Amino acid sequence: MLRRLYNWVLSWADSPWGVLALFIIAFAESSFFPIPPDILLIALCVGRPSRAFFYAGVCTAGSVLGGLAGYGIGWFFMGSIGAPIVAFYGAEEQVARIGELYNNYDAWAVAIAGFSPIPYKVFTIAAGMFAISLPVFITASILSRGARFFLVAALIWKFGPGIRAFIERYFDKLAILFVVLLVGGFLLIRFLG
User: Fold this and answer.
1) Nearest Cα to 69, choosing from 3, 23, 103, 8?
2) pLDDT band with cut points at 50, 70 and 90 for residue 185
3) Which of 26, 48, 98, 157 is deepest in the core (most CB within 10 A)?
C-alpha cells in the first residue's frame, strides 16, 4: 500500500497540478499522511531546477500550515481524532516521550522533528496536546521545515538532476547526522560556557 501511495505522489510531478499537489501533500503529511512531500519536491525540482526555490517555498508553506492543523488536532481533538492517528502509527510511547521533550526542550523538539526523518506529524499533534507555545511552535516549524525543503532545492539547483539519487538514498542518514552535529554543538557550547 505504501508503495502505491509513493508512486501516486510521484505521478503528480508530470501533472499541471504538481504545485498544488505538492502543497496539499506537504499539508497532509504534517498531520496525518504517511508519505513525505520530499518525493514530489525532488521530482519537481529535477524537472525545473530554475523553480526549485519556489517549490521549496510552496512545500514549506503547506507543511507549516499542515503542522498547525496537527497542532489543532492535538489541542482540540486529541481524544477523538489525534489518538487514533497516533495509534495508527504505533506512536503511543513516542507521544509520552515527546511530552517529556516538550517539557524540557519545546522549540528544539519541534525543530528536530521538522528537519529530520522523525515523523513530524506525531510532534505536531503532540505539540497541541501538550499545549506548547503556539508562536514557538510556528517559528520552530518554519525554520526546520524550511531548512529541510530549501536544502533539497539548493542541492538540486546547484548539482542538477544527478544529485537526486544521492538525496533519495542518503537523506535520512544525512538529516540524522545534521541533527546529531547540531545538538552536539549546543551541548559543547553549554559545557564550555
Assistant:
1) 23
2) low
3) 26
**More confident call, 100 vs 25:** 25
Greater confidence (183 vs 137) lies with 137
| Amino acid at the residue 145 | R
Residues in the chain: 193
Handedness of CA 159, 110, 113, 56 (dihedral sign): negative
- Cβ count near 189 (within 10 Å): 9
Q: How far, in Å, CA of 158 to CA of 151, rounded?
A: 10
Pull the grid cell for residue 121. Answer: 506529524
Residues contacting residue 14 through CB under 8 Å, at least 6 positions apart: 47
Range 55-84 average pLDDT: 91
Nearest CA to 117 out of 45, 185, 177, 47 is that of 177
Half-sphere exposure of 32 (CA within 13 A, CB side): 11
Phi, psi of 33, rounded to the nearest 5 degrees: -80, 135
* Mean pLDDT for the stretch of residues 4-28: 86
CA angle 42, 177, 158 (to 5 degrees): 35
Cβ contact 62:25 at 8 Å: yes
Q: What is the pLDDT of residue 54?
A: 97
**Average confidence (pLDDT) over 147-155:** 92
